[in-house]
Amino acid sequence: MMLLVSFLLINCWLCSIFLSFPDHLAGTVAGIRGRSRARFSSLGAGVLGPMTFLSYFCCMNSSDWRKDSRRKTSSWRIFSLKELHAATNNFNYDNKIGEGGFGSVYWGQLWDGSQIAVKRLKVWSNKAEMEFAVEVEILGRVRHKNLLSLRGYCAEGQERLIVYDFMPNLSLLAHLHGQHSAECLLDWGRRMNIAVGSAEALAYLHHHSTPHIIHRDIKASNVLLDSNFQAQVADFGFAKLIPDGATHVTTRVKGTLGYLAPEYAMFGKASESCDVYSFAILLLELVSGRKPLEKLSPTVKRSIADWALPLAKEKRFSEMVDPKLNGNYVESELKRMVLVALVCAHCAPEKRPTMLEVTDLLKGELKEKLADLENDDIFQPDVYRNARNFSPGDLSSDCVSGEKDSEDDAAQNADQISLVESR
After folding, report:
1. 392: exposed, middle or buried (C-beta count within 10 Å: 0-12, 13-18, 19+)?
2. 373-402 pLDDT, tens per residue?
3. N- or C-end of the chain: fewer Cβ atoms within 10 A?
4. Which residues bind ATP (predicted)?
5. Same fold, 77-166 and 172-400
């Protein structure tokens, strides 16, 4: 007990010193950070608890954030629980705009009139706390026009809340399958912009962030839409950081059925290509307005990719279009989106394109490669074999997530955050 109390006091002391140091002493502080991190790892995230871990990485990131602030136009801050209670009318039910396995999302308005969305974790647990810490860490670092911006967070008592910019047009899910689906606010032009914007966000995570990030939960409900219907990829609670040179990480399977790449669903092998597969399903949703999984019988479900492939083989692209568009679409763009999606959904991960290639293909910039897509083996009659059947009907929930993370999982997440600090 004395050791734990001493460590907490030392951490607070280091944090206060760290925040007061000028930027030109960053090199000296980096050494302190390295030694402190080593001590933290030796004690283990499970021993100190996730909240200590959260305060640890927030303090450790402050110097990096000051340096990043010179080139980033926005920043985040720590909110008080009292402030968020006032903004959301005490988390009134009428303010609720979404709900998931993590908890609920509420609309709120700050004292300056700005609108926010507040993600409130439902249950306090080591697992939820770690996902909270990872999401705050990643969102606090990444900046891209198609990634949802972090406004801040609150961690008081057992309350864990993340504050974002409010997206007035809600999510892609709401427009394809939810409360706005009958209004057909997504014309073809908006759908193409959402496809390209989401692709650019993933390309940034996979290829331009350091270290690289895999999202692990790309789906329609995690693509939010701003006032101009521009895509904002959100929800990084399941995200993983990929060390330089690593081809994949083996981890507990988390995500949503219908979007999971087969190698990830069956073997837990997470990589950038898993996000590429999930993005393929998202593209087919955008085109067709159909859900990722179609229930054929009480025990059998068919993926949207398995529905689309036979039509693509026979070049019946017009039959895939969402009927709500009433035939108003650009034929060349439709064909391009379908071909790209089905190649991205290839059962062999090594044959899927990268998100950089996907972005260029969707924009029509790789014309020769696009022409070659039609000649891919998967579009040849009787060549393709369905290797994506991993019996989703055998699972009782559309959300795949371990009931309880092991200490090794927690330690792995802590190690991921440490990887950022070593850069």
Report:
1. buried
2. 878 888 877 644 444 444 443 443 455 544
3. N
4. 119
5. no
SS3 label, residue 342: helix
* Nearest-angstrom CA–CA distance, 44 and 53: 10
CA distance 287 to 324: 11
Rounded to whole angstroms, the Cα distance separating 116 from 374 reads 45
Handedness of CA 343, 348, 349, 351 (dihedral sign): negative
- Of residues 261 and 41, the one with the higher pLDDT is 261
- The DSSP code sequence of 191-249 is HHHHHHHHHHHHHIIIIISSSEEE-S---GGGEEE-TT--EEE---TT-EEE-TT-S-E
Each residue's pLDDT tens digit, 275-308: 999 999 999 999 999 999 998 988 899 999 999 9
> Distance (Å, rounded) from C-alpha 215 to C-alpha 60?
23
Domains of the chain by residue range: 2-68, 77-166, 172-400
Q: Tell me the sheet residues that pair with 301.
A: 295
Report how far residue 421's alpha carbon sits from residue 244's, in angstroms, rounded to the nearest whole number.
Answer: 14
Q: What is the assigned CATH class of domain 77-166?
A: alpha beta
pTM: 0.75
Distance CA 86, CA 188 (A): 40
**Three-class SS of residue 355?**
helix
**For 26, what's the count of Cα atoms within 13 Å in the CB-facing half-sphere?**
12
Burial (CB count <10 Å: 0-12, 13-18, 19+), residue 91: middle
- Of 68, 94, 217, 398, the active-site residue reads 217
CATH code for the domain defined by 172-400:
1.10.510.10
Please, are residues 218 and 275 in contact by the beta-carbon 8 Å criterion? Answer: yes
d(CA 165, CA 149): 6
Nearest CA to 96 among 78, 77, 122, 114?
122
Question: Residues marked as binding?
Answer: 119
Write out the binding residues for ATP: 119
Q: Is 217 a catalytic residue?
A: yes
Q: Read off the pLDDT of each residue in 87-98 and give the average, rounded to a whole number.
A: 94
The torsion angles phi and psi of 345, rounded to 5 degrees, stand at -95, 15
Q: What is the DSSP letter of 148?
A: P
